[in-house]
Design a protein that fits this description.
By secondary structure, the chain is of the alpha/beta class. Helix content is 42%, strand content 17%. It has one domain: 3-Layer(aba) Sandwich (Rossmann fold). Strand 3 (78-84), helix 4 and strand 4 (116-123) form a beta-alpha-beta unit.
């Protein structure tokens, strides 16, 4: 079993990566292989609605960093998507990733069908519920199995690097998410 955690933050080693690592560590303790994929240094253009994926099935024709990440998403048993809140929404790069991945899968084979999915969000103060919904809608439209919740929404508060580490409730919520994802994967991958 393998889970990838994709950080949609433009900051390397920031709060979003910190939280994803916490969840991945919990899964690692359960013997699940994990990988963190930061998008901070990647170029992923938005979908341009060319619809080439309708005829050239199972791939996107835009040439950038999308393909290697999409391949890892296809191969994984579980996917964590993490993003900070930018003006009440997910970051443009993670939105570009899920829009293009979704289009390719909707026009061809849905590679995400019945995989486990979990969202993680970082907010300075507000916008986390709408941003969580954006990520959850992707999982639901792809017919993924959303990881059973934690004691609260899967987000933590912070602005500067390291701030989320002081949000004890947020940290515990993300750790619980990692444990729940490990439990779910052991149920659906047997």
């Amino acid at each position: 079993m393998k889970v990838i955690g994709i950080s949609g933050s433009p900051r390397k080693n920031g709060n979003t990566e910190f939280l994803i690592r916490l969840a991945l560590e919990e899964m690692g303790r359960e013997g699940i292989e994990t990988e963190l994929i930061p998008l901070a240094d990647k170029q992923i253009s938005p979908c341009n609605a060319c619809m080439a994926c309708k005829t050239d099935k199972n791939r996107c024709v835009i040439q950038d960093d999308f393909d290697p990440i999409f391949l890892k998403m296809k191969e994984a048993d579980g996917i964590i998507l993490g993003t900070p809140v930018y003006f009440g929404s997910a970051t443009p790069i993670i939105k570009s990733l899920i829009d293009r991945a979704g289009y390719v899968c909707r026009q061809g084979q849905n590679f995400f069908y019945r995989k486990a999915g979990a969202p993680i969000v970082v907010a300075r103060r507000a916008g986390q519920n709408f941003t969580l919904a954006q990520l959850l809608f992707f999982f639901l439209l792809m017919e993924m199995i959303v990881v059973p919740g934690s004691p609260y929404w899967t987000f933590a508060l912070g602005r500067e690097k390291g701030d989320v580490a002081t949000d004890s409730e947020g940290v515990e919520t993300i750790r619980k998410l990692g444990k729940n994802m490990a439990w779910l994967l052991k149920k659906i991958c047997d």
